[in-house]
Amino acid sequence: MKTAIYPGSFDPVTLGHIDVIKRASKLFDHLIIGVLNNRAKTPLFSVEERVKMLEEVTKDIPNVEVKSFAGLTVDFAKECNANAVVRGLRAITDFEYELQIAQLNRVMDTSIDTVFLTTSLEYAYLSSSTVKEVAAYGGDISNFVTPYVADEVHKRLCERQGSQV
Known about the structure:
Rossmann fold
């Protein structure tokens, strides 16, 4: 069985992420979405909330599983018995960074390869950061995330604004 992981923060999960997930799920028997608990970032959503959102938006893809993890991607891949790491690329700047990480991972564990999927052109501009920024200024994010995720983003931003009043 060919198993891959697709690690990321997914804060929040975008239509670009979902595009990569759907395409990767066709390439591998089992795709595990790894939601990173990155202590260096202050996310909008907790790891548990991001896992829940991803489970909701991928519930119709039978070979996809969602897990959280902390630490090194290669360690998570080994824990999952994965032989590949899937990464999405939007632009050449993504490639430079991702290539370095892929090479580092390959040095740490030669049994794990990285598979790059270029983002569909309709999502090439899209990132979780831009979704959060547009939403924070009251912009429409319906073209960037699913309706479920849009509702969650708006609820969270309203909660935060309410606590700052």
